[in-house]
Amino acid sequence: MSRRAMEHIRAQILDGHYSAGDVIRPETVGPEIGISPTPAREALQALTTEGFLSLIPGKGFTVDPLTPQDIEDVFTAQQLIAGELAARAAQRATPQDVDELEAIHFEINAAAVRRLVDVVEERNHAFHRHITLLADAPKLARILAIVTHYVPRSFYGSIEGWPKASAEDHARIIAAFRSNDADAARVAMAEHVAHAGELLAQHIAAQK
User: Fold this and answer.
1) Which of 78, 86, 89, 200 is 20 to 30 A from 140, alpha carbon to alpha carbon?
2) Backbone φ/ψ region at 181: left (φ over 0), alpha (ψ -120 to 50), beta
3) Contact at 8 Å (CB) between 184 and 176?
4) Predicted model pTM
5) 111 and 23 within one domain
6) Are 63 and 150 in contact (CB under 8 A)?
7) pLDDT (tens digit, 9 = 90+) per residue, 107-155?
8) Do residues 61 and 24 lie in contact, with contact meaning Cβ atoms separated by under 8 Å?
9) For the purposes of burial, counting CB atoms within 10 Å of the CB of 142, is it exposed (0-12), middle (13-18) or buried (19 or more)?
């Protein structure tokens, strides 16, 4: 339950539902999610270790600032890790693996045209999960998962400019995989992550 609460609260912070300095109380957020205050408090406590909240004596859990520079820093780290995973995956990719990536890519594009945001998000996650699993680097994958906590899943498909940029980026990644070109895959993935970071930073700045 606390993990579900963490994901919910984290997404609300990243989506702008809460602003820097807002106080989040377990007894308030718990019922909103459908859980008791105890797991809600555990979730809030865990989010302090991720840098989303601070626990201030006499006040409670407050939302920490998340600036465009913070987002840039996170995506810089993500570029390095995701790029390395893509390079390793490209070397191992079979024609069947690439066909599966391409099929997911087409599903993302079709869902984006129909504005099916939930489908876009799920299929985008599947695209990157397929690459991560193919890389066979579990420790790197775990580190990447920590970094991506700072990216709201609702960002994918719902922010202006992302579907078009993603479609172009995914096509370049697939082309690199098709030729088993590790260097090209690393560059294509790093550029893809950089584009996403730029769009998210703009989105957060516009909410202030």
Assistant:
1) 200
2) beta
3) yes
4) 0.83
5) no
6) no
7) 999 998 898 888 988 999 999 999 999 999 999 999 999 888 877 666 6
8) yes
9) exposed
Tally of structural domains, the chain: 2
Contact 108, 167 (CB under 8 A): yes
The amino acid present at 26, given as its one-letter code, is P
Strand partners, 24: 61
CATH number, domain of 121, equals 1.20.120.530
The domain that holds 45 is classified in CATH as 1.10.10.10
Closest Cα to residue 18, out of 64, 57, 49, 50? Answer: 64
Query: What percent of the chain lies above the pLDDT cut of 90?
Result: 52
Q: Are residues 40 and 90 in the same domain?
A: no
Tally of CA atoms within 13 A in the half-sphere of 25 that contains its CB: 4
Same domain, 91 and 59: no
* Side-chain half-sphere exposure of 6, counting CA atoms within 13 A: 15
Domain containing residue 94? 68-207
